[in-house]
Amino acid sequence: xxxxxxxxxxxxxxxxxxxxxxxxxxxxxxxxxxxxxxxxxxxxxxxxxxxxxxxxxxxxxxxxxxxxxxxxxxxxxxxxxxxxxxxxxxxxxxxxxxxxxxxxxxxxxxxxxxxxxxxxxxxxxxxxxxxxxxxxxxxxxxxxxxxxxxxxxxxxxxxxxxxxxxx
Length: 167
Prior knowledge:
By secondary structure, the protein is α/β, with parallel strands linked by helices.
């Protein structure tokens, strides 16, 4: 092994140490940035889950208004059986859950709730091409659940509008 081989080995070792140092710094930077971007993404989403057909038109109208005033917020509306809705709420997949007022299901999440009375009404899908009509004609009493300590204005606005406190 000559002097040139030894110098080349030294250069490779220096590059490896420098690469290890740079990757360590990059790793620490990414560990800081990723949770911040995940939190921003979560804050920019509003997920509502309901087991009540009657809630779909009312929630949809409110979500359209929220989207109009907050174009950066993504709104999702999930529909399923009550147990599925509660499970989604407990997992954190739904910010707001709407279940029947007499539901005996328990949530594991510390939640607040208010009652809402929703009148069944028809709505259209696919840009008015499909009309969805409710068979039920009587107003439905629902529980609107949200996580205790919720501070996001979009969630609070949805709750207030849905429960009849603010148009």
